[in-house]
Amino acid sequence: DTGVSQDPRHKITKRGQNVTFRCDPISEHNRLYWYRQTLGQGPEFLTYFQNEAQLEKSRLLSDRFSAERPKGSFSTLEIQRTEQGDSAMYLCASSLRIDTQYFGPGTRLTVL
Amino acid sequence: QKEVEQNSGPLSVPEGAIASLNCTYSDRGSQSFFWYRQYSGKSPELIMFIYSNGDKEDGRFTAQLNKASQYVSLLIRDSQPSDSATYLCAVNFDDKIIFGKGTRLHILP
Fold first, then answer.
1. Residue of A nearest to B88 (CA)
2. DSSP letter at B103?
3. pLDDT (tens digit, 9 = 90+) per residue, A49-93?
């Protein structure tokens, strides 16, 4: 257990529905990252927060994806109008510095 | 485009031997490099990071960096069955960590 928690751990939804995931980082970590990982691939960068500011967002991230980190604590990732191609493991990581990134257990999304 | 390339494997190594994992990256300006281990169904776990050219050792693990060749490697000495996992090379591009696809390592008992 790294101290980073994610909820839910598994989510099954129907195509077209909206889903929201939550990440609680290690309390003193100011950086928070979201990644997506599919089978046989490495984690793919989605977005990054430093405190409450969203500093970068992958150009691969469509407008259906949005992330927030109110008050620089927990973060949420919302996917609107889910598609089957959104099925993946969504990973959150937090760090104090770029070289000490700790991953949560992930949320596995299945879109039917 | 910023890319990190790894051989997907599987790489099979006898128990007790040295496992050698390699990675190349596209951006000469990258300053920090990471190796993560990922067991099946689990999230990645940081093993080592390296900033400077040369070798960095931590227990049975040695990371090697050659910035001129844009090449990073990970050596695992005295390989154990518990080392069987996917090893992900990652590179920091402007505070954004880009991962390779990973190399599957299988330690043969």
1. A42
2. E
3. 999 999 888 887 789 999 999 988 999 999 999 999 999 999 999
